[in-house]
Write the structure tokens for this entry.
Amino acid sequence: MASLPIFITAVANSSDDPAFPLMFTWSTHEAQVKEVLVIPDDEWLESHSIEPNVHDLDEQQLYEFGFEASDILAEWINEFDTDVIYGLDPELISQLVEATYDVKGLEPSFEVQGIHAWFEERDVNLNDAITEQGNHTPLHLMAPDELIIQLLNIAVEHELINPSDIPAVEQ
């Protein structure tokens, strides 16, 4: 059976002028949800700051609980055996992924495509599927881990992925 899709979301340093990531959240091929805070690189902080954000992430938290870009990239290299991952805002996520790779002088090994397109290619309207679940919170306002879990649940409900492949959402 084909591997499960990887869904990803990110929190940027600024909503008006995003330049680097504060947090990445993604699903794995085993349907686990991983979330990491990103320690800001000195290069990023030379020309950008961390603005107040909906997740209340600040620089101190990032340094205390975060991971260096190289650690995150090492994990992605081990986990992402695909050319494409899917995100709610592919342009923003691509920009943040590229910033993470750029700081280490590397190029991303995958591209980020829109999550709506992934569902549409499988004849599922994501907005309708969310409404059918009784969820009236816009996807972009959901907590990152809840968003990833919601996407996996919708994929299972619409038989796009096999529930037995996802222990976290088996009924």
Q: What stands out?
A: DSSP finds seven helices and five strands in the chain.
